[in-house]
Specification:
heterodimer; A: about 110 residues; mainly beta; seven-stranded mixed sheet; four-stranded antiparallel sheet; 11 strands; globular; B: about 110 residues; about 0% helix
Chain lengths: ~110, ~110
């Protein structure tokens, strides 16, 4: 069974540009989470989808970040416009139940110059 | 695919006892981290141990790292009900900041 996949694996963009990250959860997992790890620091929660609905988006840093999960399958996280402090690794995870074990993808490394 | 492997997959102990979880990995690493996942909300970072360190403490937590065996252990002493959670190890290779995750150990502390 395929695990959680993320695309791209890394992205280098200039400040002010837009970047869209994609996450494909494990098939059948209704719950999808986004996390961010700013360089060298711990991972922080961004938001949680249950199917296509945002269950909890309290961790989203500001309105430059937009997450979507149309159709309740894959999810995208768009950063527009990107700022230097957005650099880091963005992780996605999925779980079958809301309180179930989360399975993590390898992350997308974002570098904003 | 996930590189790290935690064992046991599940552990149930009485409150007050010590809990030990292990993590093995396959490649060379820069550091290894332990995280706790409480019900639903997300991850909490516990401890980071670098490849040149052998042991680290934080409160009731003790982490060891054996790079020759490519393994780490997390010891929680004097467990409490609030320690009930899933515990993950994650390894960071080189300096690309991406993490390779284990499947996790589900720890249940019985009152």
């Amino acid at each position: 069974e395929a695990g959680v996949t993320q695309f791209p694996s890394h992205s280098v963009i200039e400040k002010g540009q837009t970047v869209t990250l994609r996450c494909d959860p494990i098939s059948g997992h209704d719950n999808l989470y986004w996390y961010r790890r700013v360089m060298g620091k711990e991972i922080k929660f961004l938001l949680h989808f249950v199917k296509e609905s945002k269950q909890d988006e309290s961790g989203m840093p500001n309105n430059r970040f937009l997450a979507e999960r149309t159709g309740g399958t894959y999810s995208t996280l768009k950063v527009q416009p990107a700022e230097l402090e957005d650099s880091g690794v963005y992780f996605c995870a999925s779980s079958q139940e809301s309180m179930g074990t989360q399975y993590f993808g390898p992350g997308t490394r974002l570098l904003v110059l | 695919s996930q590189q790290g492997e935690e064992d046991p997959q599940a552990l149930s102990i009485q409150e007050g006892e010590n809990a030990t979880m292990n993590c093995s990995y396959k490649t060379s690493i820069n550091n290894l981290q332990w995280y706790r996942q409480n019900s639903g909300r997300g991850l909490v970072h516990l401890i980071l141990i670098r490849s040149n360190e052998r042991e680290k403490h934080s409160g009731r937590l003790r982490v060891t790292l054996d790079t020759s065996k490519k393994s780490s252990s997390l010891l929680i002493t004097a467990s409490r009900a609030a320690d009930t959670a899933s515990y993950f190890c994650a390894t960071e290779r080189d300096s690309n900041y991406q993490l390779i995750w284990g499947a996790g150990t589900k720890l249940i502390i019985k009152p």
